[in-house]
């Protein structure tokens, strides 16, 4: 029998092949696994009280956090196996495409434009653009904002939408963040703050603001919050949808709503049906 001589180069190639095979079988749960790994990376907001907030002690709280924690458990991960990753609005699609996270729960409204880039499970919450006003305010309709001062964050379209569609004489006042708008509302520098009702409820539920503000209860838009998943990952979408259905059926969804939004007297919509988008 003629023996083949093994050169140093071919040995190196063989070693690399073995290494690649080993790496391919490593399910470390860094975001690419649907269960059973060591960790799962989940994208959330870090700066939205009541939804996704990083606390001073490094822990996380909010409705999105509670939903994501429940879903992760159904995918096979305990709370201590979750690695929370801050995903700001402008980077959510990129974070999924890069594989930085397995899924994103971060007030992520389902839109046709976004569905071109990512897949969505849910929706898991139907929110609406609304107004936050002082507890004793006489503002009950968007049209009441004519000749009044309306606050929103710089770059947001919420206040412009109100001015364009409901109150052309409203005086827009932009601030760097929602906390600044809340301070202005509390001092009387502005008459109302506008964005999604879930976000407003989260801010108003903070200890320093409890009992001072109320939601006007207007439905100026429909925001169907979904869980973003990398485009084409149908298996994970299906598993998350099953988890969301279970969360509603066992009462955990309603508990999470009350825990996170209750202090603001948030009149939430019933849990939406999976795949049912309200236009």
Automatic annotation (TrEMBL):
Pfam assignment, any one: SBP_bac_3
InterPro entries: Bact_solute-bind_prot3, SBP_3_CS, Solute-binding_3/MltF_N
Domain of life the protein comes from: Bacteria
All copies of domain Solute-binding protein family 3/N-terminal, residue ranges: 39-264
Signal peptide range: 1-22
Record keywords: Signal, Transport
SUPFAM superfamilies listed in its UniProt record: Periplasmic binding protein-like II
PANTHER family: ABC TRANSPORTER GLUTAMINE-BINDING PROTEIN GLNH, AMINO ACID ABC TRANSPORTER PERMEASE
Family affiliation: Belongs to the bacterial solute-binding protein 3 family.
Protein name: Glutamate ABC transporter substrate-binding protein
Lineage: Bacteria, Bacillati, Actinomycetota, Actinomycetes, Kitasatosporales
């Amino acid at each position: 029998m003629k023996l083949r001589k093994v050169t140093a180069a071919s040995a190196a190639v063989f070693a690399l092949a073995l290494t690649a095979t080993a790496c391919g079988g490593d399910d470390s749960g860094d975001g690419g696994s649907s269960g059973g790994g060591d960790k799962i990376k989940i994208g959330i907001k870090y700066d939205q009280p009541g939804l996704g907030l990083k606390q001073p002690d490094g822990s996380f709280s909010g409705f999105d956090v509670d939903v994501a924690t429940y879903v992760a458990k159904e995918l096979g991960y305990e709370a201590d196996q979750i690695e929370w990753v801050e995903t700001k609005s402008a980077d959510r699609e990129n974070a999924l495409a890069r594989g930085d996270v397995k899924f994103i729960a971060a007030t992520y409204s389902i839109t046709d434009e976004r569905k071109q880039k990512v897949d969505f499970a849910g929706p898991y919450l139907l929110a609406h653009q609304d107004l936050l006003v002082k507890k004793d305010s006489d503002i009950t309709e968007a049209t009441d904002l004519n000749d009044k001062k309306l606050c929103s964050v710089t770059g947001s379209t919420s206040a412009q939408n109100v001015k364009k569609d409901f109150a052309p004489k409203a005086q827009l006042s932009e601030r760097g963040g929602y906390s600044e708008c809340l301070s202005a509302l509390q001092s009387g520098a502005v008459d109302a703050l506008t964005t999604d009702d879930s976000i407003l409820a989260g801010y108003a539920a903070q200890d320093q603001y409890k009992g001072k503000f109320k939601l006007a209860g207007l439905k100026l838009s429909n925001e169907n919050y979904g869980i973003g998943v990398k485009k084409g990952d149908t298996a994970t979408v299906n598993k998350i949808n099953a988890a969301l259905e279970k969360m509603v059926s066992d009462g955990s969804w309603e508990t999470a709503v009350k825990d996170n939004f209750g202090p603001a007297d948030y009149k939430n919509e019933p849990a939406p049906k999976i795949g049912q988008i309200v236009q």
